[in-house]
Write a structure and sequence with these properties.
about 110 residues; mainly alpha; transmembrane helix
Length: about 110
């Protein structure tokens, strides 16, 4: 507890030394905060508008079209295996829903 009081006193003395840099006048602080907030918002708003115009004019998504032969990059065998596993899982789920549930009471 003594350490907290000592460190609080050190922080208080340090902030007192910084008082000449930062005036503790609330009106000046609020005005500077509002101006800073407005500048940051204007920056983000201008970035958003520029991005919107960039995307809406299709400059950001232009891709040069080159004639290519369609390549078969999909492994059909693996896809069929996955689909069969999903069908099996669906059938197992349906059988669980339709089966009669019998629970053993552990308290007996």
């Amino acid at each position: 507890m003594f350490f907290l009081k000592e460190s609080f006193q050190k922080i208080k003395i340090f902030l007192g030394k910084l008082n000449f840099l930062i005036r503790l006048d609330s009106d000046i602080n609020w005005v500077s905060l509002v101006i800073l907030f407005l500048i940051i918002n204007i920056f983000f708003l201008s970035y958003a508008v520029a991005s919107f115009y960039n995307v809406s004019s299709d400059e950001a998504v232009l891709v040069e079209k080159t004639p290519r032969s369609p390549s078969n990059t999909l492994n059909r065998g693996a896809l069929e295996d996955v689909l069969s596993l999903l069908r099996l899982r669906k059938e197992n789920y349906r059988s669980l829903l339709e089966s009669d549930f019998r629970f053993v009471d552990p308290s007996l």
